Write a sequence for this structure.
């Protein structure tokens, strides 16, 4: 599997609380309809410990492989999700395609906020 990780920045006309509420309640369900997505996690930044990068949140999305990601990127569902981003967030985020090397697996976190497809 591969994972896409990206930074997220709220628009100036959204408070941090409004930004997260919109993402979790409106954008998340839209984005989760993208075909082939195996996982979707939004990590809200509570505080920065060190470094130069600043972000309100990070997004993580899992895909079977780069071909699955390419198919998803060409889908109308992904286009709809990207169109929605500008309604609550800046479009200047940085994204990476990554491969995980798990050293200690995270604890199970439950079924998630969205209903499984």
């Amino acid at each position: 599997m591969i994972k896409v990780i990206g930074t997220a920045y709220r628009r100036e006309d959204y408070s941090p609380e409004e930004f997260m509420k919109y993402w979790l309640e409106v954008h998340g369900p839209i984005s989760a309809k993208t075909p082939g997505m195996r996982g979707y996690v939004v990590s809200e930044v509570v505080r920065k410990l060190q470094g130069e990068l600043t972000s309100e949140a990070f997004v993580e999305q899992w895909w079977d492989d780069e071909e699955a990601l390419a198919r998803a990127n060409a889908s109308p569902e992904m286009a709809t999700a990207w169109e929605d981003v500008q309604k609550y967030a800046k479009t200047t985020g940085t994204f990476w395609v990554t491969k995980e090397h798990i050293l200690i697996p995270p604890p199970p976190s439950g079924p998630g906020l969205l209903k499984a497809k």
User: Anything to note?
Assistant: Residues 16-31 form the longest helix (16 residues). Residues 2-98 form a domain with the Alpha-Beta Plaits fold (CATH 3.30.70.100). The radius of gyration is 14 Å. The chain has three helices and four strands.
